[in-house]
Amino acid sequence: MTSLPLHSLLDKASPPASFAETQRDPEEQDASLGLSSASKDYLAQLPAVLEDISTLLRNTPRDVLGEGSMVQVLSVCGRLQRPTDPWSSTIIAAQAHRILLTLAHDSSSIQSFVDPYIHQIIAQSLRPAFLHTMHPSIHPLTGRRVPWPKEKPSTFSMDQAWKDQYPGTTTLLEWVIDHLTPETLQNDLGSLLPMILTLLEDWEARFVLRALHILQHVLTLISPDLLVQRGIDLVLHQSLRSTCAYRSGSVHGPSILQTSVSLSLQCLSRARPLHPEDVWFRGVDSLYRRAILDNALFIGYDTNAQLALLVSMEQCITALDLPSIKYEKRSLTLLKDILDHASPPLLSPLFATLNTLLQVGYPRISTYAPLLFHLLTRGWLLLDKAQETLPLPRQIILHTSSLLHALSPDLWKSAMDEACRVQPILFTSLCQDTLLCLDASSIPLLSSYFTQIHLGPTVIIQRQACATHPPRRSKPMFLSEKLYGELQETWLHQRIPQLIARKIEQDYDIGGWTTF
Questions:
Q1: What is the DSSP track for 457-468?
Q2: Quick one: which of 501, 495, 503 has its CA closest to 428?
Q3: Do residues 19 and 138 both lie within one domain?
Q4: What is the mean pLDDT of residues 481-505?
Q5: 305 in any annotated domain
Q6: Cys-Cys link to 194, which of 58, 105, 135, 245 (CB 3.0-4.6 A)?
Q7: What percent of the chain has pLDDT over 90?
Q8: Is-contact 185 221, C-beta < 8 A?
Q9: Which whole-number Å values give the CA distances from 61 to 24, 53, 506, in the listed order?
């Protein structure tokens, strides 16, 4: 055991400036590559230093340590909690956690022990690192929104002490946020939120993604009333709308896009009851234009990026609701462009997004029936040949059945013909689902179509109003036993499920089909 005092041990345990985060490749997989000799020396001696700190804390009464030393210990341990950081490891993170457990042995949890020191950790360890990069839209004392002037100032600063001089600041911020209570967050929101926004608007994607994860937790602790009263919802929406711009050069681009849209919608949704409706609709509308329609120009043919775009697109369309949906044609054209170069994994989310767009935009979107027809038939052609012998994803079948309703009778028939030609199993499932979910007004179309493709044009279709002539089994308008048998046998021969034949029997036994 060393005889060094606690403050000297803590200085040796703090990550040195040689670990400056701006010097590392953002996408580098091995954190040990390119480390300076000073950094390697630090890593070599750190386990022994942490062991000395742990021993000293066990042998020193709490009242002797003092609040300043306790804050310094917590700050050092907080910086070491992420094993993937270059100044930490699994062993080092475990040692730091054991020190926290030693300090909190008299408390119910680490969070309850840390809570009284949070304000001092923010003031002494976090605020100096962000002193020259604080976000101008949040007042640091009140935590309220500060209106920006017409000439919006740039938030970028070359003086990024949290990267260059204080390695581990981002990890410490994450650790502090994880141990916050709602009451503590409300008191320190003016200090913490500008730091999060600074990370959110950084040029490096890895810090943006970490800021988004921090913000996810913060939103669970902030009440909707506090969001609106301080104007935080508008500040967050504005920052997230800028963050969702796709970063084509980063592997984090798809995750940033999807998480930004989700958080922005979450923020707007929580504040929606306390705002006029036009504020909500303008916010989601601008988010849809920026995150979906504008990003579509830059995502290229990357499958992960297209998947993130489709998921975000469906979330925005669902949030917009029926009265305010716009851009139907641009949205359908975007889906067509994705589908023309899509791989099979994209088909299920693409059909889901298309179905959501149809539900929200119906009946106006049915004016683009030819484009819908192209999307349907093109999607069927892209299904893997291997899937022709396997059950298709149920989601694709259900969404396809719903989309068929928006087509005109001629296009509906053409779509069914195409499904029968290129995807027999899909056609079989469509027949089953369509028969079960179509309304009464659409049954004549379905019945005449099935009769035409399976029994030829010789079948005479007779219609008779039920109100004038109630259906009875003895009426000549009913299917003859021979015709009914041929129809049932033919459908079964075409691999249409037994459920359809049972449906025919039920309708026939009730009184026959008025459409035959």
A1: TTSPP----TTT
A2: 495
A3: yes
A4: 48
A5: yes
A6: 135
A7: 20
A8: yes
A9: 41, 14, 84
DSSP type of residue 151: S
Three-class HEC string of 316-338 = HHHHHHHHHCCCHHHHHHHHHHH
What token pair was written down for 473?
């089994």
Q: Please check whether residues 162 and 256 belong to one and the same domain.
A: no
* Across 30-39, 126-135, 152-161, least confident range: 152-161
Residue 44 inside a domain? The answer is: yes
Instruction: Report angle CA 182, 186, 191 to the nearest 5 degrees.
Output: 125
Q: Do 186 and 294 lie in a common domain?
A: no
Of 308, 326, 344, the residue that ends a domain is 326
Round to whole Å and give the CA distance between 385 and 93.
50
C-alpha 195/C-alpha 490 separation (Å) is 70
**Alpha-carbon torsion angle 480, 483, 486, 488, nearest 10:** -60
Q: What are phi and psi of 138, to 5 degrees?
A: -125, 130
> Does residue 437 lie in a domain region?
no
Question: Cα–Cα distances in Å, from 326 out to 263, 306, 351, 443?
Answer: 22, 21, 19, 32
Q: What is the DSSP string of 427-483?
A: HHHHHHHHHHH--GGGHHHHHHHHHHHHH-TTSPP----TTTS---TTSTTSPPHHH
Q: How many structural domains is the chain composed of?
A: 3
For residue range 344-384, list pLDDT tens digits in order.
Answer: 788 888 888 888 887 777 777 778 888 888 888 887 777 75
Spatial distance between the Cα atoms of 470 and 31, rounded to a whole number of angstroms:
81
Q: Three-state DSSP class for 150? A: coil
Over residues 220-243, the mean pLDDT reads: 85
Q: Is residue 363 part of a domain?
A: no
Give the C-alpha separation, 347 to 340, whole Å.
Answer: 11
CB 380 within 8 A of CB 418: yes
pLDDT higher for 406 or 29?
406
Tell me the whole-structure pTM to 2 decimals: 0.76
Judge if 178 and 293 occupy the same domain.
no
Q: Is 79 in the same domain as 195?
A: yes
> Hunting for tokens 């309304």 — which residue is that?
439
Please check the confidence at residue 466 and state whether its pLDDT lies above 50.
Answer: no
Of 305, 326, 347, the residue that ends a domain is 326
Do 109 and 248 belong to one domain? no
Most confident of 90-104, 223-237, 417-431: 90-104
250 and 309 fall within a common domain:
yes
Range of the domain at 320: 223-326
Cα–Cα dist 408/372, whole Å? 11
- Highest mean pLDDT, choosing among 27-36, 225-234, 305-314, 467-476: 305-314
